[in-house]
Design a protein that fits this description.
There is one protein chain. By secondary structure, this protein is mainly alpha-helical. It folds into 2 domains: 2-87, DNA polymerase, domain 1, CATH 1.10.150; 114-245, hpI Integrase, Chain A, CATH 1.10.443.10. Helix content is 53%, strand content 4%. The chain contains 14 helices and 3 strands. The protein has a 3-stranded antiparallel beta sheet with strand order 1-2-3, with no helix packed on it. The longest helix has 20 residues, at 20-39.
Length: 308
């Protein structure tokens, strides 16, 4: 079981070129599947039966009450894993062939209003008691929030932005997205100003503790308190912290990305342009944002339709 698991993870990393976060998600889902099978006496992938896989799906719905989106993701992992086993001739028949995906309703993304977004962006500020010699991390956090909203960055993309990815002359940031694909996204003046303040007054303090020759920052833009590149989980914590400080409800990093796309479309941006800025491979993924501006649709019909 574990040999097959390791081979599959290597396949995802080398041949598919997936991002670390995607590989981790596949690994977690696969580990849950293998544990379930082993608990039922199946210690080799060759012995996996369709009934065993169906039983796991039933347990996810009946016993654990997983959402359809979670079940869909785990089923996708199962189907890809067994297709890979079949392609590499580790099994002769695919027991996952007849697994059906659950009905998955499209969930509309949570979006902040421009006013709420402004409130969140202005939340990071200097504390009342400033400790001498301590880096002003609120400057870093302000720059992160500004850049995420201005350029539609995912939480996982924030830590990958390098110093060389900020192209001042063009006013754009080069982003490494899913599938190791790069895209150039404009930053906007507020985000550029926040980055300048962070670079001048905060980042130098985060790298002063480095030993000679020890480049802990790895050339990345946003650093932790210890001078290392910022991790995805820390970005989540930063967004949630400042949302709470701003007196807002549940806010997560992807809501900034949703708001970025939604506000662009509300302002009249072309859907194809928004697709490029978000780094979506398929425009159907971007189309979910078109729900937001019903008033504009009504106005368009009223003004342009012959019988409006």
């Amino acid at each position: 079981m574990q040999t097959a698991r390791r081979g599959f993870i290597i396949f995802l990393r080398i041949e598919c070129g997936l991002m670390p976060a995607s590989i981790e998600a596949y690994a977690r889902d696969l580990e849950s599947l293998l544990i379930y099978l082993q608990e039922r006496g199946i210690d080799d992938v060759i012995n996996t039966t369709p009934d065993a896989l169906i039983s796991q799906v039933r347990s996810m719905t009946a016993e654990r009450g997983y959402a359809s989106s979670t079940i869909s993701r785990r089923l996708a992992t199962t189907k890809v894993f067994f297709r890979w086993l079949l392609a590499t001739r580790k099994i002769e028949n695919n027991p996952a062939d007849h697994l059906d995906m659950p009905t998955k309703w499209k969930k509309l993304p949570g979006v902040l209003t421009p006013g709420q977004m402004r409130k969140l962006l202005e939340a990071p500020c200097a504390p009342e008691k400033v400790v001498k010699g301590m880096p002003p991390l609120w400057m870093r956090d302000r720059a992160i929030l500004e850049l995420m909203y201005a350029s539609g960055l995912r939480a996982s993309e924030v830590g990958t932005v390098g110093l060389m990815d900020i192209i001042e002359k063009l006013g754009v940031v080069r982003v490494l997205g899913k599938g190791d694909k790069h895209r150039l996204v404009p930053m906007g003046k507020p985000a550029r100003h926040a980055l300048d303040v962070y670079m001048d007054e905060c980042r130098p303090m985060l790298i002063t503790a480095e030993r000679a020759g020890d480049r802990r920052d790895q050339g990345k833009l946003f650093l932790s308190r210890t001078g290392r590149p910022l991790e995805r989980v820390r970005v989540w914590q930063i967004v949630k912290h400042w949302a709470k400080e701003a007196g807002m409800g549940k806010v997560h990093p992807h809501m900034l990305r949703h708001s970025f796309a939604t506000h662009l479309l509300m302002g009249g941006a072309d859907l194809r342009i928004v697709q490029e800025l978000l780094g979506h491979a398929d425009i159907t993924t971007t189309q979910i944002y078109t729900h937001v501006d019903r008033t504009k649709l009504r106005d368009t019909i009223k003004n342009l339709h012959p019988r409006g």
